Amino acid sequence: MFQKIAFGTFGWVCVCLLVANSPGQDRILPELPQTNSAVTLVAASNPVTGKSEFRYRSNNIPPVIRVQPGSTLNIEYKNELAAQSKEECVGHPCMQMTNLHFHGLHVSPNAPQDDALDMIASPGQTLHYSVEVPPQQPPGLYWYHTHPHGESYVQDLDGMSGAIVVEGIERYVPEVLHMRERILVLRDFVLPTDKQSSPGRRRIRTLRCAHVVSIPGRMAIPILR
Length: 225
Ligand SMILES: [Cu+2]
What we know:
Blueprint: H1 2-11, E1 34-35, E2 39-45, E3 52-55, E4 64-67, E5 72-80, E6 88-89, E7 92-93, E8 101-103, E9 126-132, E10 140-145, H2 152-158, E11 161-166, E12 180-187, H3 199-202, E13 207-214, E14 221-224
Parallel strand pairs: 1-4, 2-5, 4-11
Antiparallel strand pairs: 2-3, 5-9, 6-7, 8-10, 10-11, 12-13, 13-14
The structure holds copper (II) ion.
């Protein structure tokens, strides 16, 4: 079990690398798309694997969403998942419902904010989020992921998660003001052999985020949640 988790953590998608020492190392992985304005996010089914994924600007790499404390996060979230799922949720084909949860943000649980119970989109439907980030929201790294009950563990393991950066960390740690930033997102995933495991063991849903700043020749400073 422990080995599987460790492998999953390191074996998946490291979206961005933090090293700045060598110009060549910068090209190992691309920069993540980032946005600080209204976002249109799409839930779609991968035509090859059948797995669920986020689409953003015609790509399937979830963006880093950057917000200021005291601002409003506007997201249009379209469910374009295939009506018939190739995946299994709790013993039956997934129903392809989806929504968003804003992990760690101190925001309202009522629609149109962080309402994971009543805001649900079936295929063909769109949700409109308008999330008011409080002025006292601590700066740092947070994340968003899907949260439809009974289905979210499959969607999250498919990779439907991304980072949220609440700006202003330099007010608390002035040393990072001129440092280079990299966002590191590591996700667990289920190995094929895990299909023989009990449901409890398959529900590994973990995302590790590292908000990283670095300068050439120095060790980076990760800020983990
Ligand atoms: Cu969460």
